[in-house]
Amino acid sequence: MSKANLYSYESFVSEYYDYLPPVAGRQDLDFYLDVARTQGDPILELGCGTGRVLLPVAQAGHRITGLDLSESMLARCRAKLENGPAQVRERVQLAHGDMTDFDLGETFRLITIHFRPFQHLLAVEQQLGCLRCAHHHLAPGGKLLVDFFQTDARRMHDPVFTKESSPYPEVMLPDGRKLRLTERVAAFHRAEQCNDVELIYNVTHPDGRSERLVFAFTVRYFFRFEVEHLLARCGFRVVELFGNYDRSPLRDDSPEMIFIAEKQGS
Q1: Are 107 and 139 spatial neighbours (Cβ–Cβ below 8 Å)?
Q2: Assessment of whether the complete model's pTM goes beyond 0.85
Q3: Structural domain tally of the chain?
């Protein structure tokens, strides 16, 4: 995440994050574990959040560092670590920092950017800053893994997406609260390749009280060859490109763009 984007998770976002259907239902973990096994340690995850991927990677025996700009998300991750086995905690380092400008004083075999944090970098200089930092922190032969959603052209302009919709089921939280996530595009900015988005957290408490919490942010969308050019400018060569976490090739109807790029100039 980047300070320049003023992108910060409010406390309610970190509180509910792990329960959101698009988060809890993601089918990407086996893919990331397989890449970690293949590439080896140490690993750096940029935008590690609450540790959704970081913790299973550490539990699988890998040494991993997680960096995030949100203190509240890192606090959730630390709490999970404290409640887990000591041997897992020993494999994990957490750092508060900006993914566009960081220096951790070590190099890694693998750097990952999971589930869209790169798409919160709105300006090209932010994007280049992140990739240059990643290049600097990779050991010779190291690889960078970064994923994006493949842009749906309708979501660049169609007013139907400005209407609040609820594509997700209601979720029951452990304390008895119910959470229903709705979403809408608040504004299209095609010239800047970004949308203003609202995620609305509709919470019903056990006593019947209801809350409507709105998380408003801007997301940048990317296209395949744009990403390839950004990577090339920062000293990377794309070695694998997938359209989903089953390693299927990128096609017109693929939901994802998953790049694995190798550090050049080692």
Answers
A1: yes
A2: yes
A3: 2
